[in-house]
């Protein structure tokens, strides 16, 4: 297989594969739990009745998105690949919007009462699960953007420092480093 082309398969190390599998299993179990908790306690959060629905839809869309992503990785061309790519893109957009809406539903009623006799009542497990999943997801988003920003900054710094070493002058050939000795008469 030609690995030099842009769409070529990239080999992963066993550690990378194991990490991806473990993260996907944990995420699938969390989303299955979200569906189960949301469906079980569908009418037990009158302070914000969208919270159980938020859990059900978030879990279902995440599981569907993950399975379609695996379909994309299996089928590399053809109509199935194009359709699943379009659908995954739309599903990610929907999931992002749903997550923003769910965040406002969960955080707007913090802290609810957990006793059914109270006015601002929400089932404790349902609310805390939604709160924890939403908070952890936001923390991961912030961490991802922070690490991405650090990586971009390091890349820019390395590019700028490499640029200063690669600037040609009258003593070097184009592409030579500025740390090199003067070019000999035969090199010019």
From TrEMBL:
Q: Which UniProt keywords apply?
A: Membrane, Transmembrane, Transmembrane helix
Please name the source species.
Channa argus (Northern snakehead)
* Name of this chain's protein: Transmembrane protein 272
- Taxonomic superkingdom: Eukaryota
TM region(s), chain numbering = 12-37, 49-68, 80-107, 127-156
